[in-house]
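User: Modeling request: complex.
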Amino acid sequence: MLRIRTSEFAIPVALCVAGAIFLLVGSLESTQFARLTVQGVAQGMVYSSLALALVLIYQATHVINFAQGELAMLTTYIAYQLIQWGLSYWEAFAATLVIAFVLGVILQVTVIRPVQHRSVIATVIVTLGLFLLIDGVASWEWGAQLIILPSPFGSTDLSYNVGGVLIEHLWVGTSVVVLLSLAVVWGLFRFTKLGLAMRAAALRPAAAALAGVRVDVMLAIGWGLAAALGAVAGLMAESSNLFLDPGFMQQPLVFAFAAAALGGLESPVGAVVGGIAIGAFQILLTGYVPALGSNLQIPFSFAVILGILLVKPNGLFGRRQVQRV
Amino acid sequence: MTKLLELEDVEARYGPVHVLHGVSLAVEEGTIVAVLGPNGAGKTTTLRAVSGTVRRAGRIVFNGKALSRTGPDGAARLGIAHVPEGRGTFSELTVWENLRLGAYTRRGSIAADVERILTYFPWLSDRRRQQAGTLSGGEQQMLALARAFVQRPKLLLLDEPSLGLAPVLVTEIFRIVRELNEKEGLSVLVVEQNAHLALQAAHSGYVLEAGKIVLAGTSEELRADESIQRSYLGY
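Assistant: Request completed. Predicted assembly structure:
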């Protein structure tokens, strides 16, 4: 019911509105602030899609997939390889999403499914193993090369001039691509029979099976979707990097963990909002407090998140069960 | 009449704990069959053996097809709707989403079935967008029934529909089950502690004790049986 939900989420929603107003007013006051905000939001979008991938898997199996970032890195290399073989960037992008989906499904069926009924810890350890394995394979295959994957949004000098504020094409492009993929995922879960079955399988596997849902298949599709979202994150994170290097998704993964924890590990909306908030915070902090530099921004960001989690342990959008017995 | 469901010598266990020691029973097409018995006799396990939510041995034939290797999703696709104890309602989803899930195994529109089921549960129609977890216990039980109905099953497995509900609601639920049976031709295998109500609604029944069928008969025969009167009907 609407009343219960608004009261439950009153504080996080108020916080988000306050944050949005802060960013808006700041952007109107100062062009420097506006530039950093747009950059931060674009950066945050990358965290959002990776965090959403984590949440998709966590919701269904209560497992944090530590390999999510490396999987995204691997699929980015696959996209690079496809471009080397002559595909255009966007052709490679589309093909990579399909490959990532298939890869996710295969990993779930071959590596995760045999252990998932044992224990959560066993599954988490398998994902850690995957992390190391993928990292090793990518370093072995591509690590020694200097790889430059051109940004799909053109050179970084290209900017839109919005009321005197120079906004790079890269930031706008990143945000649009991530928003589109989030919209597709949202639509899938909200409006399709498959999405409904996936939600049911995640919420109550036993009851979903009784309704005729093949829970194993849904879990595999969930891994596929998460891998595809990760591929979007990887490709978009890469486009703001100069070089492609096997470790490039490790820092985004840490921020995606933080985004998911901040938003509530079981809340897709929370993951997206958390990602954007962390991205904006991170870029604004580095922009205005250069003393924190690129080394101190991680501990500082985490200190803030820790503070929030002390007050709301389930994350901002973590849901306490609404149930009458 | 043809047998829709037949169990022959069915055994089931949870790990080392043997629960069913060779249960045999049958549900004729178009009838309501009750399984009575004390706590821990294996009533719930009998239903779970049919829907494949527990490992079982022995012969289970549904609609001419052996179910020995069929899991719960396969059983649902064959036309078995299992409303488990505790209802199996998706409390986080809306009422409408619960009904749509009921139709998961079917193709095409469910509008006609939903209209039909709303004639049995008229109050559901203004609650479509409400989260199912905010319904009362009785309403959730009715939603579970409605969801099972939208599945268009040949056989409904109903586990302790009276559990935790007020007597008025329990009577109401059994009245609806009886109506679904008479008007829609739905066959039902119901497990129930309240022998009085169950025998009123059912055509025939079995008494299960310690994992074995100890008594079988029509509802009239069972109601007239002395040991049943003593143990279950409280005369």
